[in-house]
Design goal:
It is built from 13 helices and 18 strands. The chain is α+β, with helices and mostly antiparallel strands and about 450 residues long.
């Protein structure tokens, strides 16, 4: 049940928080500019909750949590009493109106910086960009197993996310990049990655696969560390220190294979447990055993644990994984750097989608956002903070697009007003609202269509 309602819950939490902060930016600046705010709504549609303050502003929580608005006194929206005209939005200076409209996206940028700052102070576990198996372009370029990517075109890369953000634009533009890699011995060398040779069917969602790179993951040996009493493994005769060689004829190289094959092969299509043929090595002898898992919460349970990591395995873990953590002052600079990196990547992707160099399949809608919110929340507080910061940046950037009815469309009108010395005509503004509405509905429809394709593919 939680697998269905969990994403919905976290979508409401995430969007509710970010929309509230965005609309509060408009509200806060409007109040300081002397504009009367009539209503502050989080969500659209019928109100689930509302109240009024002493200024007469209605605060609403509405039924559809996919947006919000701040409604201000405005003569373009309806008649205004003569004694209240000084508080009308349209009576304010061009600078004041610009500040009020720009405040929403600006507050989303502020929220993102704050979320990333707290994320770095708390510490976020990350996977370092260590290369595993290479084929194709990566192998031809000279990349080798366990090389650590430390720079892409001179930009430091601490994680696989940093590497992908740096490589993706070059891959879409078919331009080669220079990688600085570090071997296990600490020696650094330069490698030219010929992304200009990527084929026309390049799929940006599988960038590393197209280049021929598999991220390296350390593994533990497939040796049983402990067998639980009264478990299927104990009943089958498995013992601590047994080395698992094969499961149902599938060779086992490491503990990841054990963790993959048992759930994959240990339960049938009808949800019932299946007996597993196990080939194990014990004291230099090979044994053939049969083990039938026990099903708990739909998962096959056998009752074995991996061995504790030895010194070599611990060193591998330290090379492959890290925790990005900084003190409160250092985290300020890191949060601005992360915001700048993700903002540049988002604008770059939008620009490439407009010019056709990136697929429109990259657009995501509420279903994907809900799944991401749920997944990030399950991964921990710092990962959820990263998700919130990323979505907050996306909201800011989308709202700055020069589309009428969005904040960017209003800012575009104000730029025209600044240049020509007078506001755009009512006819232009009304026509723009219809065009903007069609564009937003079209983009939302495409995003939801992409969500459904991902969901059912």
């Amino acid at each position: 049940m939680f697998e269905f309602f969990g994403p919905i819950l976290w979508l409401i939490v995430a969007l509710g928080l970010l929309i509230t902060f965005h609309e509060f930016g408009h509200f806060w600046v409007a109040r300081r500019a002397g504009v009367r705010v009539l209503s502050f709504s989080v969500g659209f549609g019928p109100a689930l909750f509302s109240r009024r303050d002493r200024h007469g502003t209605e605060y609403r929580v509405a039924a559809i949590p996919l947006g919000g608005y701040v409604k201000m006194l405005d003569e373009q929206e309806g008649p205004v009493a003569p004694e209240e005209r000084a508080q009308a939005f349209n009576r304010k200076t061009l600078g004041q109106r610009t500040a009020i409209v720009a405040a929403g996206p600006a507050f989303n940028f502020i929220f993102a910086i704050a979320a990333f700052w707290l994320m770095f102070v708390v510490g976020i576990p990350e996977t370092r960009p260590v290369i595993g198996e290479t084929v194709g372009l990566a192998a031809e370029a000279g990349l080798e197993r366990e090389d650590l990517v430390v720079q892409v075109d001179g930009e430091p890369t601490q994680t696989w996310t940093h590497v992908l953000l740096a490589i993706m634009p070059a891959a879409l533009d078919r331009e080669s990049v220079q990688l600085t890699v570090e071997s296990t011995g600490g020696q650094r060398r330069q490698v030219q990655l010929p992304l200009d040779r990527l084929g026309p069917d390049f799929n940006e969602s599988r960038t590393l696969e197209a280049i021929g790179i598999t991220p390296w993951r350390p593994d533990l040996p497939p040796v049983i560390g402990q067998v639980s009493a009264d478990s299927p493994a104990a009943g089958a005769g498995l013992q601590a220190a047994d080395r698992i060689r094969a499961i149902e004829g599938e060779p086992v190289e490491g503990w990841r294979d054990v963790a993959r094959l048992i759930p994959e092969l240990g339960v049938g299509a009808d949800g019932q447990p299946r007996a597993l043929a196990m080939r194990v090595e014990r004291d230099g002898r090979e044994l053939q055993l049969e083990m039938t898992p026990r099903i708990e919460d739909g998962r096959p349970i056998v009752g074995i644990q991996s061995p504790p990591p030895d010194e070599a395995a611990t060193a591998d873990m330290e090379r492959a994984f890290t925790v990005l953590r900084h003190g409160p002052l250092a985290a300020v600079g890191e949060s601005f750097a992360e915001t700048g990196r993700l903002t540049a990547a988002t604008f770059g992707m939008l620009g490439r989608m407009v010019t056709g160099r990136a697929s429109l399949e990259n657009l995501s809608g509420p279903i994907t956002i809900a799944q991401m919110a749920h997944s990030s929340a399950l991964l921990g507080f710092s990962r959820f903070l990263f998700f919130l910061g990323l979505i907050s940046l996306s909201l800011a950037i989308i709202n700055l697009l020069p589309i009428p009815i969005l904040d960017g469309g209003h800012l575009m009108y104000y730029l025209v007003e600044f240049v020509k010395g007078s506001p755009v005509s009512d006819q232009t503004r009304i026509a723009g609202q219809y065009v903007g509405l069609l564009m937003v509905v079209g983009l939302m429809g495409l995003a939801i269509f992409n969500d459904l394709l991902r969901l059912f593919s």
